[in-house]
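Subject: two folds for Thursday's group meeting

Dear M.,

Sorry for the delay on this. The cluster queue was jammed most of the week, so I only got both jobs back this morning. I'm pasting them in the order they finished. Each block is the input sequence followed by the predicted structure tokens. Could you check whether the formatting survives your parser before we put anything on slides? The first protein is the one we discussed after the seminar.
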Amino acid sequence: MHEPVKDSLVETLVDDRYFVRSLVARGGMSTVYLATDRRLDRDVALKVLYPHLAADRGFLRRFESEAKSAARLSHPHVVGVLDQGITDSLAYLVMEYVPGRTLRGLLDERGTLSPRLALALLDAVVEGLAAAHDAGLVHRDVKPENVLLADNGRIKIADFGLARAVSTNTNTGTLVGTVAYLAPELVTAGGADERSDVYSAGIMLYEMLTGRQPYTGDAPIQVAFAHVHSTVPAPSVLCPGLAEDLDELVRWCTAKDPEERPVNGRALLGELRHIRSSLNDAELDYRCASGPAGRKAPTGAPTESLAGATEVLAAAGAATSVIETSSLRPDAGQGDATEVIRRGGNDTTVFPAGGLGTGNHGDADNADGDYDDDDDRDDDHGDDGDLSPAARRRLAKRDERDRLRQSDREAHRPQVSLRSGKPRRRGILLAVLLTVLLAAVAYAGWFFGAGPGALVSIPDVSNVSAQEAGTQLGDAGLNYTTDEVFDEVVAAGLAVGTDPAATQEVRRFRPVTLLVSKGPQMFSVPNLAQRTIEAAESDLRDAELVLGAVTEEFSESVAAGNIISQQPLPDEQLRLGTPVDVTVSKGPAPVEVPLVTGLAEAAAVDAVEAAGLAAAVAPEQVNSVSVPKGAVVAQTPASGLLERGGTVTLTISLGPRMVEVPNYVGQRAEAAREDLESRGFTVEVENLLGGLLGLVRDQEPGAGTAPEGSTIVLKVV
């Protein structure tokens, strides 16, 4: 048996701030660790690049730029980038730590999901994508392995911007993605935009509803070709009970032509929520019972799913770089942990852009049994007599939609009509038309080649002065506006970056925003005095701060459980997430119970109240041989500590009880003595003339009553 090799970074301190606690996962580009931020005392996910990448200065510049772009994307459904750093020995990225598991783990456990759950999960994913698309960012690798389901119910997209950073590091002619969710345009052209993310989201919805991916194959290239040449089948092919609106949603998202998909996540989000609200409970709660194991694959699709290590499909002689796509997982023993995407899952694949074109793959397509548009349409129509009414309605709706789309295309198609007339006039018209067309072509060539419509790459202007950044943008022929933003890393007055981000190619006429740092955003400390811990946590959360150390002490003026003091003080300005320490009251300090037994009632009450306690006199008094009447014979509690204001109960003495004393004169002294002692008296004997007779001659006091415990004197002769 081989002993496990301990990772060299575990139990070390990175950059004097991040204490590495354990290894989480390894990938193609980096290693992920669970670490603790010593400065803010919180758990984070630390992604450390492999040394050969950290040694590439060009890659590090792009890595740093992409980290800053991703850090500006703050959204509840996106895993946040908190920090990045480059030391002498390593380069790292610090991300939000999300304890929980992935959507892949949920699908492995359940097989299929009901439309209610699938649409709710997709809603959160698409909302995160919409926020990213609004900010000019594209994910490029949307899949269940990158959707984290946190223990607290939050849904977050992981690895945002990472595929983007990697793609800038791959050689020309390659692209990055996960083959099962790859948009067709990424295979044929290599270019990705917001609609590529929409396609991947549609594939993910198909898998959640049916329990399987639409395309499978023995090799990644087969699946890639299927995305290019086939139409994603409706989910109801595998699960006939699914609502027709869900088929339409999947087909819209996964249209082969990007122009026929939602333009971005924001457009998809609106339609998604409309469908959720329009379906009834039966349609929302229907669930495909068989799952992936109980259904046949679509006709012609290979039955084995693609489950291999990260694949590299590159043009001959082209070097490639592979992105790791491991998600995060907390330490074992913490319940449903975030799962680590291991080899054998849906790994990110690097393809040659343009190298998987549609030119010479007809035979391969047929061999794979993939669907094409014509075959799919013929299969759907078939013999109308064999279709159910619901199927006929579905086909009619689709045909009507296709007719409207074709009509729209025809309406926008320019037409030129040359009426019949004299040949000379027709020739002049043709010459004029040709001249206009040539001028238009020439103008378009200039406009898009060297004019305002020419493509230009946005320079990386991060960490330079605003003036220098403006000069670089102007030299590139770009028009820009300036916007000030808060930034935790970049100093005030320096450029944070641009929107769109650096290295993107845009037309010269497209406006670019130069983002200039205002420094870190500062937050005012709220006044926490007299607040409970729960209320203080809420106040700090609203102020973008966190609760720090909590200590306790006694207080005579602040009720137990309320805050006495805080550090830093109210109204001080702190950075995002700074902890605030508080001192909580334990209430008044306890006091010593005074001993008041034997004291007169009034004196005892005064002594108890002087100690800060309350005195209560018991309603029943008791006889006491030793304590005189009116004095305290007992107290409860008798001693110890008592909370200030606590009650001490006093019992008052009635004095000794009166007992009958018989006349013993003439009786034997010994018998008189025994009788008196049995009555509770103390007996003294005085012998007269030696007491030879042993008879009582006299007694003091005489016959009558006397206090219990008093002394009776017998005079004996």
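Second protein, same layout:
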Amino acid sequence: MSKVFIQGVINNIKAKSTPYTPITEAITNAIDAIDKSGRNDGEIHIRIIRNPQFVSTDDDKLADVTSVEISDNGIGFNKENCDSFDTIYSQLKRSIGGKGFGRFFYLRHFNDVHIESTFIEDGKYKHRSFDFGKQYNVIVNDKVSNLPSASETGTILRLLNIKGVKLDKDPEIISHRILEQILSYFSDPSYTCPQIIFEDDALDAPIVLNGQIGTRDDSLIQLKKSDTFTVKGTKLRYKMFKILKPRNQKSKIILTARNQAVTEKSLDVYIPDFCSDFTEDVLVDGEKKSRNYIIRFYVQGEYLEDNVTVERDSFNFGEKYNPLYPVSGEDIEKAISEIAKKEFEGVVSLRSKVKREKFEKYAQSNIWYKPYIDDIEFETIKANPTKDDIELILHKAKYERDLEIKQNISQLTSKNKNYIEAQSNAKKLIREVKDASYSDLAQYIAFRKSILELFKKTLEWNNLGEYDTEKAVHDIIFPTKSDSNDTVYDGHNLWIIDEGLNLTQYLSSDKNIFKENKDRPDIAAFHYGVSYREGNDSRSNPVSVFEFKRPGRYDFSNLSSREDPVSQIVRYVNNIRNGNCNTPAGRAIKVSDNTPFYGYIIADANTRVKEWLECEKNFKPTPDGDGWYYLQDNINLQIKFITWDKLLKDATVRHRIFFEKLGLEG
């Protein structure tokens, strides 16, 4: 005779399960036993047994659950039921969805299983006791004896010495979780479930699980709706329960078989607004109170019964589309989610409105996203999105709109495009391009505003009552020790000085570009930068050179000629004019006698500096008195001396109209 190693069967169970799984299995078997007995006064008792050696402390007042006892007054373990228990994959309960395997979960979560039962055989009451074997026999230590007298049949199943993951400690949570697993038994109006009584010494009184379900507002679990629906020609039915005191749980879709939960999926996977509890106001003793609840959809049907796996942890048709089955789990869940959306249309609409308001508020500070608010499907966005979530979603919406505009422009300009149709589409496309252009401009102007604010902050004294170093200010305008080869085109902010400088083709900062001359400004000061445009042979294109002095520094007007910025600018220009300057590839930069040069000196000016500029360097002041200029005609050089304050003020004034138009002031 072939043998089966019981522990091997248990170890090979791949189904996901918890310690609640064997309890649910035992309750299901108890319900079957009561139904089979034909009695209408069936009762099932679930008794929780805790660690008797536990010593209570203030932090932990409840002992761990060690064992669970499930008793019923059903038909008992007569020969037919005993033989079925002793047969792996028994077919006895196949007609009601039984797979003959569920009892093996007993030993997966508990070390020992003991059964005692009273049954009738040949018109006599008999008593049977046995253990669930762990080696080659399912039933071991089987003992049957006659009972001279007995009042009723029934079975006591003891799940002893829990192993691995523990049950919850709070008895109300335990009872609630058990009830959720067997809610399908209470979903059929034509079926009366036996009384299920939960007992625990930690409770003041037993909890009748049936009493937790009802249609009254004070029922902890309410059956709110029951209906049928069809998915791809497959007829199914659902029961919608409202569950109070959700204890951080979520609204779910639960697919069932044999009145047991098999798979579950959070509704917020399909409708993000179901991720949190719902709230309602009720009258309690004449007083208005608020309470939370969640929704559970239990789905039933022959299709589910026929396709549940042996372990009853999944279905043969799987989650995604399978050509062998007409309907997938996802098909069913999506159909239920649409039902849920209609049932809670008002709540979903309100929560979507709240999300939209968050996006609109975000767009007030990030105005370039305003044109894309209407592109967002707020029902598909999770509740309580963070700023990072909002930024990512709006950025994606902008990208998708811009991509669509490019594709539409391409189609509109196609040679095969009908003129009348193109003219009609062009009007809409122009509006879309206008919105996109507005967005891009707004984003760029907002970026510039941030740069100017940073620039202003850098020009202020620090906590030590000193100005920041030259490098701090220099790096805002153009990164030191870099050039155009390692700085992206928009990686500099030379527009602060002059918008025309955005057109330069090459920039070098803090790098020696001279072939022979090692001359360079003081390394502690801002270093020179050189730019040229339109290629090496465009000799008529301007060349600009810059010299920066730290804010608050004035001593350059008293130093030797090799340290003053005017002499430095002239020296750099002469070096370039004499061909003593290389391109990035090492070739000489060629200029002509007509090449214009522009020099920029950015520094602060006190009375001594002003006198030095006007009396010693022959500079002329600008009308506002914060800048000076000088022309050295013999080398085509114009030098501008600009104070840091004037630089910031002029840049701000140039941008003010944009800030005002785009609502960025303040």
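Two things I noticed about the second structure. DSSP finds 14 helices and 23 strands in the chain. The radius of gyration is 41 Å.

Cheers,
T.
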